[in-house]
């Protein structure tokens, strides 16, 4: 994974509510084992937090990345960072 790139992925981690949901993923610059995720489903909430808004920290192993798929980060402006 490269800094500054967004990657489409599907959640496969242990949280059953999130399993199968898709998200955009980016590199966590502070921890190579973590990624920052923003889920596609606008109604998806976990512990009262809307996961489609802001960026949320997860283990890299919680996601299955779509092979060869990349998203142009320049299309997305005004993003802010938050962790769950």
Structure description:
The protein contains no helices and 7 strands. The two termini are 22 Å apart. 0% of the residues lie in helices and 33% in strands. The chain has one domain: SH3 type barrels. The strands form 2 sheets. Strands 6-3-2-1-7 form a 5-stranded antiparallel β-sheet, with no helix packed on it. A two-stranded antiparallel sheet has the order 4-5. The protein is globular.
Question: Can you give me a brief rundown of this structure?
Answer:
The chain is mainly β and 84 residues long. The protein contains no helices and seven strands.
Q: Work out the radius of gyration.
A: 12 Å
Q: What would you call the structural class?
A: mainly beta
Poorly predicted runs: 73-84
The rounded distance between the terminal residues' Cα atoms is 22 Å
- The CATH topology corresponds to SH3 type barrels
| Multimeric state | single chain
CATH class: Mainly Beta
Number of helices: 0
- Spatial sequence of strands, sheet with the most strands: 6-3-2-1-7
Task: Work out the count of structural domains.
Answer: 1
Amount of beta strand: 25-35%
- How many beta-strand elements? 7
Query: What is the N-to-C order of secondary-structure elements (H for helix, E for strand)?
Result: EEEEEEE
Q: Tell me the helix content.
A: under 10%
CATH architecture: Roll
Tell me, what's the shape? Answer: globular
């Amino acid at each position: 994974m490269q800094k500054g790139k967004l990657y489409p992925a599907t959640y496969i981690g242990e949280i059953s509510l999130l399993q199968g949901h898709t998200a955009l993923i980016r590199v966590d610059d502070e921890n190579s084992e973590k990624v920052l995720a923003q889920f596609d489903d606008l109604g998806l909430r976990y512990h009262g937090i809307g996961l489609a808004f802001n960026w949320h920290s997860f283990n890299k192993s919680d996601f299955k990345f779509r092979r060869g798929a990349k998203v142009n980060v320049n299309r997305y402006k005004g993003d802010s960072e938050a962790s769950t």
